[in-house]
Specification:
It contains 5 helices and 5 strands. It is globular. It is an alpha+beta fold. It has a single domain, classed as Ribosomal Protein L22, Chain A (Alpha-Beta Complex), CATH 3.90.470.20. Strands 1-5-4 form a 3-stranded antiparallel beta sheet. The chain has a two-stranded antiparallel sheet with strand order 2-3. It starts with a strand and ends in a 5-residue tail after the last strand. Helix 1 crosses helix 4.
Length: about 130
């Protein structure tokens, strides 16, 4: 039976993200190539989606118990989207190593936005090997 290893949440202002993604250095450093391709297709909703995705990166880092530290950085946390639109997470490098270190098996993610605010909630599930 899965157990909850960590939870995290974050809130991001869309207006702040709109200014941030206008700076190419920030946009290219924080969002991976696939994420930028997804955001570039969003046109008018680009800043809103970017704010939700950045909040997701923060929420995942918090759920891991590190925040953006110890190699768990925005560029090591990739926010993905299924064809249905459901968000997901793919971890790279030190973020993936941290997930394994804490016994995490998968990351669940929920995103929402309203007006100028975007929010993300992340849950890390593990497996309780001793249960049974």
């Amino acid at each position: 039976m899965p157990e909850i290893i960590g939870i995290g949440t974050d809130l991001c202002a869309v207006s702040r993200m709109e200014r941030a993604i206008g700076r190419e250095h920030f946009y290219a450093r924080v969002f991976l190539e696939g994420e930028r391709a997804y955001l570039n297709r969003k046109e008018k909703a680009r800043a809103q989606s970017a704010a939700a995705m950045f909040a997701a990166k923060e929420a995942v880092a918090k759920a891991m118990g590190t925040g953006f530290a110890k190699g768990v950085m925005p560029w090591a946390i990739e926010v993905t989207h299924a064809e249905s639109g459901a968000p997901g997470v793919r971890l790279h490098g030190d973020a993936l190593a941290r997930l394994e270190e804490i016994g995490g098996a998968r990351v669940l993610l929920s995103l929402t936005h309203e007006g100028d605010m975007a929010m993300a909630f992340a849950v890390i599930e593990g497996t309780n090997e001793s249960a049974g």
